[in-house]
Every structure is written in structure tokens, then in C-alpha cells.
Amino acid sequence: MLLTITNTRYPADDLSYLMHKHPAKVQETEFSQGIAHIFYPEVSPQKCTIALLLDIDPISLVRKNGPAGNDFALQQYVNDRPYAASSFLSGALAKAFSSALNGRCKDKPEMVSVPLDLEVNIPVLPVRGGENVLRGLFEPLGYTVQCTQHPLDGQFPEWGNSRYFSLKLTHTLTLQALLQHLYILIPVCDNDKHYFVGKEEVEKLMEKGRDWLETHPQKELIILRFLKHQKGLANQALEQILQEEEPAAETEETTTPSPVRVRMHDVRLQAVKDELLATGAATVADLGCGEGKLLRLLMNEKQFTGILGMDISYHSLTIAKDKLKLERLPEKQQQRIQLIQGSLTYRDERLHGYDAAALVEVIEHLDEPRLATLEKVVFGHAKPRTVIVTTPNAEYNIKFESLEAGTMRHNDHRFEWTRAQFSEWAGQVAQEHGYTVSFKPLGEEDPEVGALSQMGIFSKTTD
How would you list the strands of the sheet with 34-43, edge to edge? Predict the structure, then answer.
């Protein structure tokens, strides 16, 4: 059972400090069912790879588990546990890399919060539910997923595919975040655990998933599988998440903190639709379309003859397809709208040729250093005549009593800009790529801090 993690952010060998493992040594860590070997196949300032190889004793598995409760008499002796990634690997990660998993680094503490260019390879990962489940777990977190499904038997292709995948993940994020994702999602993919699951597992889930689980579109599946389908424990975890979500929901969905509430998201979408109509655009791309709320508004307007919805999350696109009832539409209407999966940090030929594009509350979900890539993809490569960008106005946050000073409205926001910061960014983008830009407030405008959200309208001036 093997897992490798590679860093290519210079100096890449800083990975060894974060992992608390010397690159010149092969180290071993014992755990209940075997030994974890830790070593570095490659170490340089340009590229550094650490490997975790689990040597599981199959006899130990039999002695500890015993024969009771098995429908298949040989199950304890004939199984995939020594070879396929599972909760054994998750447990070994927690023990071998405990300092990194908990965000500690003695020699270079400043590195803990630095995003690295990371790549993970798992040669054999069992996935209950297939590729759709695999992508639905990792892609909403920003990973680029490359996977190959293994056949049951290469000599008998008619038998079909197995549930085993070779997985490669790439992402720019902190090492701690990566390890937290792997710790939870590896056993979720396998849909099994090798040990008793009790209340302490809820605490582990809440601790390792506190920065991302509540916003994950597959959180119910993750919780249920991680807690081994114990509905009582799953309900406890969901209740904790819902309690944590309440303040964010209040700030994000209301235009004012008063008792009379107006859904800010509806105001925002309507304003974007009106701006798109005013441009005279016939073809429109909603970049980061989520579950398709803006798409539904655009479909009601005859002016828009071609509508594209793109999102990184396959799960969100599936929901959008269902809510838009695309399969029930007449053929001519079906040809009018297209849903595609893609990332705004990769050049995509499918984005060419649209009159206008909208990025509604999208940019704040990217790390600021990655915005330059998005700018090149949208403004430099796709080059629609009009681009509409909306983002929260950080100045307005003081209006919310439930929001602590210095915190953001949503756990997945990487930044929130003031009006001046948004104006400065938008002005630089416009100048660099041949656009002019104007600004409008979204929601009721406070004379001191502005509106809850802000919108920039970019208009192309040069080819």
C-alpha cells in the first residue's frame, strides 16, 4: 500500500521540514497491523517527493479481528487490505505525519501556512460508486483529478472494471490541508473502516474537516461514510455543522442585519442578469455556475441564444442539470444551453467566442496568487466583449454583529476586498487586457461602508 506526496514549489525540499522526516534516512513507524516505511525517492530544490509504504501483516489482521461475523469464510485471509488504500493508510498518515497534519513545524513554522504546489499519487484506491464519486469528493476542494480504473482481469476484459483506481491529485494548497483531506476522504472512498467507530470519530471529523467540510457539496455522503453509516453519529455531526453555518448564512443571504430580510443572492443574480441584457449579448458564459441559479434566469430571456454554464464541481453540475430540467426541454431549447466541467485556472478553448461572461462570487474562493492565472484565462484568452465580476465588500462586514472582527463571511473565502482593493485589482486587469471597467453597488448602500456586495463591469476596448 503506497502513497507519495510531491512538492514542486521552490525550494521544494522544504517539504522535509514540514513532514519532520530527514530526507537522507529511511524511517519506520509501527502501528497495530504492521509497519509504515517513510522515505524520499527524490530530493532537490526543484522537486521533492516523500513516500509512505505500508507493510501490513495479514496474519495480524486475522488474529485481531477473528472469524466471527464474516459471510465469506476466507474473507479474513483473502482480501485487499494489505494492498489497497483504506482506513489503514489514513491511520498511518495520522501517526507518521502527525506534526504536519496538526499544523506544527518546529524549524520553519512560517511554512505551515504557505500554499505548496503538491501532487499526490495513490496506485490502488478502492472507490465505492466509481469515478463520479471520486471526482465529487476531490474536485469541489479544487483538486485536478486524474484517475484510471483497473479492470477486474486484464485477460478477460468482458468481465468489466473493478472498483480500484490509480489516482493522481494536483493542487496548490497547504500541506496541512492536503493531509486533512486525505485523512478523511481515503476511508470515505473505500466506504469502510477497520476499527470500531464511536463518538470520538465525530470529534476527529469535526477537527480535520473544520475548514472545508461544511461547504462541501458532498458533506452528507462524507459524514455518513466516515462514521461507518451510523446514523446517530452522522446526525450529531450534521447538527454541529449546521450550528457553525448559521452566522455565515445570515451574513451571506441578507442585504441588511435588520429583521426584514431580503435574499442578497437573489438581488445579486437579478443585477447581473440586467447588466447582461443591457450589453446586448446573445451568447453568455456563467463561469462558476454552481447549481445553475443564474442560468435559470438567463434561460427565461429570449435575447440569449447561447448559454454556457461551467463549474469545477461535477456534483454541482449534476444538480444544475436536474434543476434546469434540461432533459425535458424541447430539442431546440436543449441546444441553447450547455453545461461543462472545467477550472478557471486552466486555459480552455471551450470558452472562446462568447459575447459576455459572468463570475458571480467566484474570485474570492481562489488564493490571491492564483488570480493571475484566472485573469489570463478569462480576460487574456477567452476575451468576451463584456465580463461581469461580483465579490463581497469587506467594509460592510462590520454591520454584522455575529461576525467577529477580522473574520470572513464564509470559511471557503480566501480573501474579501474593500471597495478600494477591488477597484485597484479591476483597474489593473482592465489596463493589461484592453478593457474599461465601471462599478456598481449590490444591495442597499450604506453611506460609510457601501453595499454588502460589489460589481465590476468590464467592457472590451481593443482586440
Answer: 27-31, 34-43, 48-56, 2-7, 116-126, 161-173, 144-151
| Same domain, yes or no: 271 and 189 | no
Select the more confidently predicted residue: 286 or 346. 286
Helix spans in 6-141 (H): 15-19, 58-65, 87-96, 98-101, 130-138
What is the residue range of 312's domain? Answer: 264-460
What is the dihedral angle through the alpha carbons of 353, 356, 358, 363, rounded to the nearest 10 degrees?
60
CA distance 288 to 387: 13
What is the DSSP code (8-state) at residue 396? G
Say how far apart CA 368 and CA 424 lie, in whole Å.
Answer: 14
Characterize 45-58 residue by residue with b for buried, 16 or more Cβ atoms within 10 angstroms of its Cβ, and e for exposed. eebbbbbbbbebeb
pLDDT single digits (tens) 85-126:
778 888 888 888 988 988 888 888 888 888 999 999 999 999
Scanning 97-174, the segments in alpha helix (DSSP H) are 98-101, 130-138
Q: Are 150 and 324 in contact (CB under 8 A)?
A: no
Of 149, 180, 195, the domain-final residue: 195
Least Cα distance to 446 among 255, 232, 252 occurs for 255
What sign results for the dihedral spanned by CA atoms 399, 404, 410, 416? positive
Q: Residues 185, 171: contact at Cβ < 8 Å?
A: no
pTM: predicted TM-score of the whole model, two decimal places: 0.53
Domain stops at, among 177, 195, 213: 195
Q: Is the pLDDT of residue 171 over 80?
A: yes
CB 185 within 8 A of CB 219: no
C-alpha torsion angle, residues 381, 383, 388, 389 (rounded to 10): 20
- Cβ neighbours of residue 55 under 8 Å, at least 6 residues apart? 34, 35, 36, 37
CB 281 within 8 A of CB 443: no
Cα separation, 96 vs 90, whole angstroms: 10
Count of CB atoms within 10 A of residue 20's CB? 16
- Quick check: is 243 in a domain? no
Q: For residues 275 and 409, state if they share a domain.
A: yes
Residue 444: band (very low, low, confident or very high) from pLDDT cuts 50, 70, 90: confident
Q: Which residues pair with 56 in a beta bridge?
A: 34
For residue 139, give the CATH number of its domain: 3.30.1610.20
Q: Is residue 281 helix, strand or coil?
A: coil
Q: What single-letter amino acid sits at 429?
A: V
Among residues 313, 3, 309, the alpha carbon closest in space to that of 138 is found at: 313
**Residues comprising the chain, all counted:** 463
CA distance 364 to 266: 19
